Amino acid sequence: MRLNLLLPAVALLTSSTVAASSSVIDLIPSNFDSVVLKSGKPALVEFFAPWCGHCKNLAPVYEELASVFSYASDKVVIGKVDADEHKSLGKQFKVQGFPTLKWFDGKSDTPSEYSGGRDLESLSKWITDKTGLKPKVKGKVASSVVMLDDKSFEEKIGKDQDVLVAFTAPWCGHCKTLAPTWESLATDFATEPTVLIAKVDAEAPNAKKTAGEQGVSSYPTIKFFPKGSTEAVAYEGGRNEKDFVAYINEKAGTHRAIGGKLDATGGTIEALDTIAQQFYGAYGDGLEEIKKAAQGLQDKYAEYYVKVFQKVDANKGYVEKELKRLEGLLKKGSLAPEKVDDLTSRSNILRRFLNQPEKSEL
Q: Which intervals hold domain Thioredoxin (predicted)?
């Protein structure tokens, strides 16, 4: 008997706890005017119905959106209206489908339609663009994936970056599976200025045109756009991080490894490696040749090869000593990613001077 009495109480307590933990404000006819229309604060309001599948898919994203802006609750409102229960509010703001997102400026009763993607990045960007406020994500690194819509797609594609784009949909299970891998991939190439890892919410009103023009009919669809070209190359490889990293390295000429660091070839130049091997142990004899070869290369590390030739010619133990110094700096940590890349590149080049070429048999 006591158990029967306790269960409803526990259920009520659990429900209250969950509701209290939400940063999304529940809006009803009695509080809508004071919270949204006359507060002086801008507000993003979702009109939803409990039975709506798309609303259920949006719910966790919307909760997270409210959470990352909860620190600025005195400056912006993230709210929702059960328009199935409170039909008067849905009718007042001409809601015809679910979910419908509307932006209120806090001063008038005439909202503007939200037409962006229904992912956290797109929603956050909308609020940032409108208010200047930036999301604060606890325990998470800001995403390096760039969300593209019809306008930004035209601005980014065919320019000076190699772009790998995933066309996704909010309800797509395979897209959700891909999402963490895509985030890791974007982080891996975050310091590569000529590589962009992007996403398009193919069902967002402001991106449907692009998805249609690209012939996207299933999700996720992944396409590669080489720099300077608007012609897409369909990606047909594996969908783990290792596969994507290898693909981009091949297409873009980069040297990244999983985790974002440079691989063992980063910074090295094959043509100059050949000369270093040719004059192994007699670098003074090859100094003029390495200088001549370096002059014709548009690579910032070409001159480093020349420097190493000069240093080794004057000091036979230079490579070992310098490599030990650079490795020590890398082990200390707390370095900017660009600095890590530079030290790794120079270390990779130095190791080319340690490898004695195999002697060919006569």
A: 1-132, 133-253
